[in-house]
Amino acid sequence: xxxxxxxxxxxxxxxxxxxxxxxxxxxxxxxxxxxxxxxxxxxxxxxxxxxxxxxxxxxxxxxxxxxxxxxxxxxxxxxxxxxxxxxxxxxxxxxxxxxxxxxxxxxxxxxxxxxxxxxxxxxxxxxxxxxxxxxxxxxxxxxxxxxxxxxxxxxxxxxxxxxxxxxxxxxxxxxxxxxxxxxxxxxxxxxxxxxxxxxxxxxxxxxxxxxxxxxxxxxxxxxxxxxxxxxxxxxxxxxxxxxx
Length: 244
Prior knowledge:
It catalyses: (S)-acetoin + NAD(+) = diacetyl + NADH + H(+). This protein is an alpha/beta fold and 244 residues long.
């Protein structure tokens, strides 16, 4: 029996990188998945590859109306939602001196506000399912400092996770945050700080970047019934960086 059998999941930012790894593994583990992204081409291609248990929706996670459509699609296609993975996020390597207000607000909206909107949108569906698991992808920089905007938003995700866990525990809804370190994804390899990140990776105690699948292992655990007594907690996958 697969670990996510009979689970209906929503995964944001699911077309590439860590999100793609989560979507693939969820389907392999028996879940029925609605995944979203702004990259329509990559999303449609992945959905076609994965077959009938994966549905793609182009979705701006910062818009509440879009969230309502995603949940409605999941329910009408597969049934009540019992797993949400808030994975969508962006980073920007700029100093406080250089970052504009518009850039700052964009990071906060995508990385932080979207998590609130996602949690709020799935609650009625999870209540129909009589419980669920919400996995919020934060970052190592939700534990220790890093770039402005990114760090702020990832600390906020950690805090919102705890606040939501306290309020939703009695409903059988668990809420946890995952804190990856440097992961080898397109956002890293194609971003504006590639060389800086590669140099930083040499300082990691395990002396390498992680693969997306290593984060997925934790996300699957938290989404599954194996993590039935874990809520309001942070799960760090950083190769030992925050131990320094």
